[in-house]
Design a protein that fits this description.
Aspartate Aminotransferase, domain 2, single chain, alpha/beta, about 525 residues, globular, five-stranded mixed beta sheet, seven-stranded mixed beta sheet, 13 helices, 12 strands
């Protein structure tokens, strides 16, 4: 038996064992093939159709899986990389949703910056584990620097910190952990984090436009179902302080414990921004934690022109920021930043795995004597102590490269271009007699609108005509999707169905917006 790696069974051994410099040419050729497949995808599919074919669930399932409509067994025999790339090009690439198509305005999925894609490739090649500093030391420092930039973006000062996550859902989840284990513990004067019956009788206030992940987090964290107090947003889908103050007074009178406000800056439905300053004043008066979900809109603060649209984030105790939205990053990278960065370790740093020996403070708990190499330093940065995850991807590198590539001013310009496109779409709708938007003027770059085949005004809610109009929007969305000429999602606002254009696209122009409306009119005639 030999201890040497044996690769003769594979048709491309130089792509498996690469330690010999002679494999460099093979690796370069492999890189060329991968990039060629990427460019074929971009120019033969992504920029041609917004949605691949077929677009229906059952049809695509049959197309991909075949007659069984079920996944095939794992392949037993090896293949060349080119054969695998060819299968991607034939079986996968033609059927994707395209973030790059200039009339792709679906969910918050921008085409990623090239520097972000480069960062993703380099991060995966480097294979740094960003859980314990000793396993990925430079990776931890890159993340620390990116988090400093995100704290600066929000407006936080010294002592703030954060953690990168898979996305906004996990960031909001961590925020609600802080609400429970830090703020509720303080309010109750508890030594240990509250659990069980200690979670009863508290209230977290949010609007009807708040992301579902806030309620999900409270559920999963053991709070009773009535913990989330939903306060209706105003006519512009924003949450102000007055109705929350009324709810707080009512709950205090009933013997309940108001605990937190979960505001939103850039709601998923409409892009609306809650009155963060008002809510911060209220939270300070009532001793509530203020969390702001700014996953989408925080990046607007990099625009000198539009930063005021997302004001007062620095007054929140915690803020969710999602770089794979308006910072144009490849999936996945979200984040939570906290004004008092120390609370992350307070909530998550209690358990100390024996295999993370170098990650404990020098207080005798790590099971070995202090070393003189810094591996056990008390101030060492170990992200496993600041959130849920142990194993963590090196998410920071792509944002670090992107920020250096285009700068804060570049991000601001890209955001402004999207806001201008949304305003252009809203203006075209306002000038028409067969579309209407709600709200009439978008707060950021989300435009919710519907087609009115019979012209304005639309039917009264609750009538058969209103029901028929809702169905018309759904048919129109499906027709647009099937055509591949654009992509929109739908949502429900005030009991009615609307098309929703989330404009986070660096490839789009005003002409694309105009063409989208023309396409919808044409499709409506056949709907």
């Amino acid at each position: 038996m030999t201890a040497e790696p044996v690769t003769g069974w594979h048709p491309e051994p130089d792509l498996l064992v690469i330690r010999d410099p002679s494999s460099r040419d093979a690796m370069r050729e492999a890189g060329d093939a991968i990039w060629a497949a990427a460019l074929d995808y971009l120019y033969d599919h992504a920029l041609v159709r917004a949605m691949g074919t077929p677009s229906g669930y059952d049809a695509l399932r049959a197309e991909f899986f075949g007659a069984t409509r079920a996944p095939a067994p794992a392949p037993r025999e090896p293949a060349t990389l080119q054969a695998v790339l060819d299968e991607f090009s034939s079986r996968v690439a033609p059927h994707t949703v395209s973030a790059y198509h200039p009339r792709s305005f679906g969910y918050f999925t921008p085409p990623p910056l090239l520097a972000s894609v480069a960062g993703e490739v380099l991060a995966q090649i480097a294979q740094q584990g960003i859980d314990i500093w000793h396993a990925g030391p430079i990776g931890a420092f890159v993340e620390e620097e990116v988090l400093r930039w995100l704290c600066d973006l929000v407006g936080y000062g010294e002592g703030s910190f954060g953690i990168l996550t898979s996305g906004g859902v996990m960031a909001n989840f961590i925020a609600m952990v802080l609400v429970r284990d830090v703020h509720l513990a303080r309010l109750r004067g508890a030594i240990e984090p509250p659990r069980g019956r200690a979670l009863e009788g508290v209230r977290v206030y949010a609007s009807d436009q708040t992301h579902f992940s806030i309620g999900r987090a409270l559920d999963e964290l053991g709070f009773p179902a009535d913990t989330l107090a939903v306060v209706p947003a105003d006519s512009d889908f924003r949450l102000g302080a007055a109705p929350v103050a009324q709810a707080i007074a009512r709950d205090r009178a009933a013997g309940l414990t108001p605990l937190a406000i979960a505001a939103v800056a850039g709601s998923t439905n409409t892009g609306s921004v809650d009155a963060t300053g008002e809510l911060a004043d209220l939270a300070a008066r009532e001793d509530l934690w203020l969390h702001v979900d700014a996953a989408y809109a925080a990046a607007a603060r990099l625009s000198a022109r539009d930063a005021g649209r997302v004001a007062d984030l620095e007054r929140a105790d915690s803020v969710t920021v999602d770089p794979h939205k308006w910072l144009f990053q490849s999936y996945d990278i979200g984040g939570l930043v906290v004004r008092d960065g120390g609370v992350l370790a307070q909530a998550f740093g209690g358990r100390r795995p024996e295999y993370y020996r170098a990650g404990h403070e020098l207080d005798g708990s790590n099971g070995h004597a202090p070393t003189d190499d810094g591996h056990g330093a008390a101030d060492q940065l170990n992200f496993w102590r600041l959130g849920f995850e142990g194993t963590r991807r090196w998410r920071a590198l792509k944002l670090w490269l992107s920020w250096k590539h285009i700068g804060s001013e570049g991000f601001g310009r890209l955001v402004e271009a999207n806001i201008d496109l949304a305003a252009h779409l809203a203006a075209r709708i306002a000038a028409s007699d067969d579309f209407e938007a709600l709200p009439v003027e978008p707060e950021l770059s989300v435009v919710c609108f519907r087609h009115l085949p019979a012209g304005r005004p639309g039917p009264e809610p609750g009538t058969p005509a209103a029901t028929a109009l809702d169905a018309h929007q759904d048919r129109l969305q499906r027709a647009l999707e099937a055509s591949g000429e654009g992509w929109l999602s739908t949502t429900r606002l005030r009991g009615a169905t609307y098309l929703r254009a989330g404009i986070l696209n660096t490839q789009s122009t005003a002409a694309d917006v105009d063409e989208l409306l023309a396409i919808l009119r044409r499709l409506a005639r056949g709907a």
